[in-house]
Design goal:
Shape of chain B: elongated
CATH superfamily of the largest domain in chain B: P-loop containing nucleotide triphosphate hydrolases
Number of strands of chain A: 4
Radius of gyration of chain A: 28 Å
Bound molecules: adenosine-5'-triphosphate, magnesium ion
Strand order of the largest sheet of chain A: 2-1-3-4
Distance between the termini of chain B: 38 Å
Structural class of chain B: alpha/beta
Largest sheet of chain A: 4 strands, mixed
Helix content of chain A: 55-70%
Strand content of chain A: 5-15%
Order of helices and strands of chain A: HHEHEHEHEHHHHHHHHHHH
Oligomer: heterodimer
Number of strands of chain B: 14
Number of helices of chain A: 16
Number of helices of chain B: 14
Structural class of chain A: mainly alpha
CATH architecture of the largest domain in chain B: 3-Layer(aba) Sandwich
Helix content of chain B: 25-40%
Amino acid sequence: MGNFFSFTHILAFVERDLRKFMRNPLSILSNVLLPIVYLLVIGNSFQGTLKKLPLGVVNQDQGPFSKKVLNRLNALESGPNTIHLSLYSDAKDAENAVREGGLKGAVMIPPHFSKDVSRGTMPEIGLILDNTDAVSAAALEQAIGEAFSYLHVDTISIRPDREQPQLRLLELYRKLDYDASIVPGAVVMAIFMGTMTTGAFNLVMDRFLGVHESYLSTPLTKGELVLGILISGVLVTTLVALVVLGAGVLLTGLQVAGGLSSFLAALLIIILTATGLLSMMCIFLARVDHPRIVGLFGGFLNIIFFFPSGAVYPVESFPDWLHAFSRINPESYAVHALKTILFKGMSWPALKEDLLFLSGFMILMMLISTRIYKRTL
Amino acid sequence: MEKITPASAVSVQNLVKQYGNLSAVDHMSFDVSAGTCFGSLGPNGAGKTTLIRILSGLIKPSSGQAWVKGIDISKYPEIVRRHIGVVSQAMTTDLDLTGRENLDIYARYFNTEKKMRTRRIVELLERIGLTDRADDLVATYSGGMRRRLEIARGLIHRPSILFLDEPTIGLDPQSRRVVWELLQEFRQDEELTIFLTTHYMDEADILCEQIAIIDHGKVVVLDTPEGLKKNIPGENIIDVTIEHKKEILSTENQTELPHIDMLTSKLSGFTFVQDVSQKKLETRSSLIALQIYVTNGVASIPVLMNQFQTWGYQVHTIGLKQASLEDVFIHYTGKSIRKEEGQKVNFFIGAGVPRKMG
Ligand SMILES: Nc1ncnc2c1ncn2[C@@H]1O[C@H](COP(=O)(O)OP(=O)(O)OP(=O)(O)O)[C@@H](O)[C@H]1O
Ligand SMILES: [Mg+2]
């Protein structure tokens, strides 16, 4: 039944697996490289704030206020570097450049702009946007709007309005770059990669090669076989996840909050998540005997688990159905826990829910996987 | 009820394994005495592997019972596994491990204690002649070396029964002889019961005290090699290939096949003819291959040659030989086992990792 375990048996089975890994270091290397490449590419392509958006400017006004607008825009270019300005003399040219994709937008300052401002008769600035690129368009609209409103405040009222409530920002934590903010996601991806290429995958390979016949005719019990495969899988996966965590911290310059306690907590989360996911794979792959199926399955599961985990985008903004899924997605809890530990420092109360869920998930998956493991050919 | 006579190492009663409509093992019953070598001999698909897999607890029988060392394999497979060694048809040693590692890890599955284990490994490596290659990866071994390693692995925990599924398949004649010698040595030194399957006559003849010829999942006949040879009628066998002259002239007339039954009954009219059986030929050719079991070989050849001529047949080949196990096999199953060998090339796949069928 598998309620009797022999350590000798389990250790021998684990050793067999680990030795095979040691002889094939390439398979582990790819587990490390993929999350790191992912971190570098995604981290640097989806920046938190957009930069260097090409913006055309057509100034048809000679008055002082258009100068102020231009100064504002120049400040935006040299400061946060949100835009990259180019001057156009012809409005038509600028519009065409937007249509052809050379510019993300163009600002039109009409001839009577300064006059309108000083008279207070609804001064207008035209903004042509390539709204097929929704992300850039929204960013430009916001940036130009702000530049314009400063101008407005400057001219209309000299002193700040005392009636108007002011927004004062209180940042709780150290400022975090976007690429650093997805380090926990990369670690969880490394765990997932590990669970796809160790553990149950090795069982599938054994079945595919017919090698499982050799150990099925020995006294190894069901429980010993499942535990052995989980232990070797967790060891390798944890190692992979730690390497990715280390590389992520170094590459993004993430300053980890807290010292040893944070590290131990992160290790605990990694082990719980890895064991849970590895057991889950043992269930899914219990009857699979071809590695190609694992590949198909892995790509599919990675998308299902990873993107709704909050690793790249906050789960709160998901539509209801996806949000509901993210609440039963173990990777959500792993990402949340790792974010908490790495960015905010170790704190048990903040981790309680994650730890409870991940432990529960792990125990459930281990029970089911041992149950359904097929100890015959 | 569990215990069968202690002398039986393996005992099988009405064993059936059904795959859909196909009976891979079809009501088999036999006993194997402890300390002997038992061979189950059969062509491709006879059910040899299926039988061994049931006996080693790898698959469950559909019905019937099997005891190994008197223990019911369906009820206590985990106890049976402690006492048996299995060398399966497909090679199953780990290619990414060295020979020594393969043996060491396997021994630990049987809780063999460290000191004993190390000694046993050294001893086995020496006997199979792999001492100097022990620390090389199995991936670098030749087929024969790997097969010897598999046999050593099956014996690592000093089992009392060793199951071997086609132990010399894919080996050259010299390596086969090495394996036979190994098995005979181990049998003598370790009081081993050997249960092997094979489709090589000579292998069964040399190694086994009891041979069960199986075909289509059934035990066709079970006897000692000598008994089997004695069983076939006549002392000599005449192998003859003939072709009807009409067939030679009009090849398009393929539908009307030669009249075997008529030929057989005509031949049986001779007092020196004990039995006639037809060898199945692969092609749809008009050739007829017959085995004629006769009492006085040399004298009967000219008589038969003449007769075939007068009946309108042309004799292509004719030969005389002493009865061997090969002929026993043909006698009982109607097929030549050698012909099957050619189809066994891809034994890696043929060993059948069981897959669900539709
Ligand atoms: N898992 C399975 N599903 C369906 N049919 C099977 C399965 N395993 C074996 N069989 C069938 O059972 C029969 C016996 O197969 P088995 O492998 O026991 O033959 P064998 O005597 O070992 O042959 P060989 O000499 O080729 O190894 C064959 O017809 C085979 O197709
Ligand atoms: Mg077979």
